[in-house]
Design goal:
By secondary structure, this protein is of the alpha+beta class. The chain is 33% helix and 18% strand. It has helices at residues 42-56, 74-83, 94-101, 105-113, 140-150; strands at residues 4-10, 13-20, 23-30, 37-38, 92-93, 126-127. The strands form two sheets. It has a four-stranded antiparallel sheet with strand order 3-2-1-4, covered by helices on one side. Strands 5-6 form a two-stranded parallel sheet.
Length: 160
């Protein structure tokens, strides 16, 4: 059960971060905020806000806080942890990750669509082997922007 959540205004839109006492649980793009909840786990939400501020200042933040993956399939958790190791500004293909983790590339794609932690699990860094970017849970423009941003090709204020 989510016990703390808050909102972060970013160049890609409004981001909601939510946590349990065990760690950060959900980070997602949202259309409009509701009331924030600063219950148990708020420290994880606040830590994400610091992480996001560093990310959008062209920093290369590394998430060090706890993550609450309870209830998620262990294979997906292993995939997400592998994706968290992709260096800032670099990409890996669905096929490459599939080979490393003995998963079909489509399973990697499904795992990326289900990734619950925007930016913390940098799903934008996973692309097709031919270099095309693929989907991003319906936000392909956001994926392109994040990739361009990490490569230094866009200013945080320039989002279309």
């Amino acid at each position: 059960m989510l016990t703390a959540w808050g909102y972060f205004a970013s160049p890609i839109g409004l981001i909601r971060a939510a946590a349990t006492p065990a760690g950060l649980r959900v980070v997602e793009l949202v259309g409009a905020p509701s009331n924030e909840q600063d219950g148990p786990g708020w420290e994880h939400v606040a830590e994400f806000f610091e992480y996001a501020e560093s990310y959008f200042r062209s920093g290369r933040p590394v998430w060090r806080g706890p993550l609450d993956f309870s209830g998620h399939d262990p294979r997906r958790v292993a995939l997400w942890r592998e994706v968290m190791e992709i260096p800032y500004g670099q990409t890996r293909s669905y096929a490459e990750l599939g080979r490393r983790l003995a998963l079909h590339p489509r399973a990697v794609g499904a795992g990326m669509r289900a990734a619950p932690l925007l930016l913390v699990i940098p799903a934008q860094r996973v692309i097709h082997a031919d270099g095309s970017i693929g989907g991003f849970a319906g936000f392909a423009g956001v994926k392109r922007w994040l990739l361009d941003f990490e490569r230094g090709n866009v200013n945080p204020a320039d989002i279309s």
